[in-house]
Design brief:
With 316 residues, this protein is mainly alpha-helical. The chain has 13 helices and four strands. It has one domain: A middle domain of Talin 1 (Up-down Bundle). The strands form two sheets. Strands 1-4 form a two-stranded antiparallel sheet. It is globular.
Length: 316
């Protein structure tokens, strides 16, 4: 099998596996009488980060640490610039009160903490991985508590309604098959990425922050575009910020707790992370300074141009 086919097959399997894992895990959670709010805020968010988790874990186990870092950082950049940018071009994205007072501040703090850990340790040691997981639990608990206090509903009501009717055997089957597809998808994607990097003498980091990151962000992009077409105003930005928080605390936390992640290519710190934190600050300006509680089409176009510039400078 050629490296290109392996990479494309890996992306397809990751997409299918992620879809099945979300459906199966949601259905099982509902059958355990966990409220739809809790499921929507935690189970769905974690399951949609499963492609990044499996790819990063497989990469670290294979000794390709830059793919793990590049996948997470590249996905976070793509979520804010590519996914939110395209969505805002279709319709003005409304900014909820929870995003202003809770979600974005947590994203900024977790992003800064992530950078501080990388600079100090030149990677993420195991003990910090466990700390990230603890912070994730605290974040999820506060998210649920605040949502209940504000009487907010989950943004995934349609998914929850469909999954609630699945019989138990089908839910378990979805879950098992989803995990297998994610495992094999991660294997093919990481192997294909390494092979292409060696063949064309491109660093693993570059492919990770471009091809791999876009591939693992496809579910978020598809969901946001569908939400835009359905004019579901309050969906995109909250889910994307939540996804970025989960990528840092859940994906890197779980991976680092299994095996310490060390930085090999210094451009991860000097270029990719710097770009990620700048984009996070730009999003903050859009939320607090420039917008009347919405991301406009002009701001969406600017985010998209920022992503194109990031791809250009990453590759060339």
């Amino acid at each position: 099998m050629s490296s290109t086919i392996a990479l494309l097959l890996g992306l397809v399997l990751l997409f299918l596996g992620g879809e099945l894992l979300v459906r199966g895990s949601v259905a099982l959670a509902l059958k355990m009488r966990i409220s739809t709010l809790v499921v929507g805020m935690t189970v769905v968010s974690f399951a949609t980060s499963a492609p990044e988790l499996f790819v990063s874990l497989q990469a670290v186990l294979d000794g390709s640490n830059d793919i793990a870092f590049g996948n997470v950082i590249g996905s976070n950049i793509a979520n804010i610039t590519l996914v939110l940018g395209v969505t805002a071009l279709i319709f003005r994205v409304q900014i909820s009160e929870q995003t202003i007072t809770f979600n974005y501040p947590i994203l900024l703090l977790s992003s800064l903490a992530f950078g501080g850990v990388m600079y100090y340790f030149n990677g993420i040691p195991q003990e910090v991985g466990f700390l990230f997981i603890f912070l994730l639990v605290v974040f999820a608990w506060n998210l649920i508590r605040k949502s209940r206090k504000d009487n907010l509903k989950s943004d995934d009501d349609e998914l929850l309604e469909e999954a609630s009717h699945d019989p138990l055997y089908k839910s378990i089957a979805y879950l098992v098959v989803g995990v297998f597809l994610l495992k094999f998808g991660a294997d093919y994607l990481v192997d294909g990425t390494i092979a292409i990097a060696k063949k064309f003498e491109i660093s693993e980091r570059v492919i990770a922050v471009t091809v791999v990151a876009i591939g693992t962000s496809i579910p978020e992009l598809a969901t946001s575009i569908v939400a835009a077409l359905k004019k579901e105003d309050n969906l995109a930005i909250g889910n994307l910020i939540g996804s970025n928080i989960f990528n840092i605390l859940a994906v890197l936390g779980v991976v680092a707790s299994v095996k310490e992640i060390s930085i090999i290519d210094t451009a991860i710190l000097s270029f990719d992370y710097v770009y990620m934190i700048i984009i996070t600050f730009i999003l903050g300006l859009f939320i607090y300074a420039f917008s009347k509680r919405e991301i406009s089409r002009t701001e969406g176009a600017l985010l998209l141009l920022v992503y194109i510039s990031y791809l250009y400078f990453s590759i060339y």
